Amino acid sequence: MQINLLFSIDDKFVEQMKTTLFSIYQNADHNHHFTVYVLQKKLLKRSKTIKEFCHLWGMNYVPLVIGDDPLFEQAPISARYPETIYYRLMVHKYLPENVDKILYLDADILCINDFSSLYELELKGYLYAAASHKNLTNMTKMINQVRLKTYEAEGYYNSGVLLINVKKARDEVHAEDIFRFIQENQYNLLLPDQDILNGLYGNKILSIPDEIYNYDVRKNATYDTISMGKWDLGWIIRNSVFLHFCGKDKPWEDKYRGRYAALYKYFWYKVMNE
To answer: Which of 22, 59, 96, 109 is the right S-S partner for 34, CB 3.0 to 4.6 Å?
Structure first.
């Protein structure tokens, strides 16, 4: 099976992305063929390093260099709204025409099981598939719905794992809609690109279980409570696919002491010593 992966990084996050890719390779069916697309304003200085690393594991690396695209001349751009926030939502503009589906991943994600079942999802009329984290209270959920006017959406979706229906996005996701949404809601947006995703397309997102595909490692107690103890460490190791190291504390830092620190560092040091 052909699997298209998407990242959006700068040169500071190359090792993190390599760790994510290595964890994918270790847990994927080796009959899959991976193409790794990386969104970037300018060609990354470490592009050669990425290409060699991908080649080592039988993956194809394709840089998506945006450059000075006139599309963004009319975009609201500032320190809060850098040009890069638009790249992921507009990725269909830069991908080859034969790419109909792609899986976007944040570079602070670790893959611990095969994710074929996610990639094979039939999106049909949906633009995206994503997970809504279960740590949101009903009040927080209601505030997000009012803030973004997403009353029909099932929840507030995390954009760190995002299966994109590229074929449908080419017809329905337009830059002018995104720019207008920012201008009309600029004072209500807390996480600009994620808020845009939810505000404009929240009712076109297929919900997937976060305990499987976007496990927030900060929320162990919440998951324990929701599952009445079922989703313990053993269950997570056997069933979860993507561990997402959300927040300020990151597992590649020496001071990190989270439950999954050792697991992440195992992959991290393997990559660093390749």
So the answer is: 59
What's the domain count of the chain?
Answer: 1
* Spans of the chain below 70 pLDDT: 80-81, 134-154
Residue from 39, 37, 240, 207 nearest 128 by CA: 207
The burial class, CB within 10 Å (0-12 / 13-18 / 19+), for 137 is exposed
For 145-187, how does the pLDDT look when each residue is reduced to its tens digit (9 = 90+)?
A: 544 455 455 678 999 999 999 999 999 999 999 988 888 887 7
Q: Which domain holds residue 51?
A: 2-272
Amino acid at 215: Y
Integer angstrom CA distances of residue 65 from 86, 91, 95, 107: 13, 11, 11, 18
pTM for the full predicted model = 0.91
| Tokens matching residue 167 | 């074929």
- Say which CATH number the domain at 238 has: 3.90.550.10
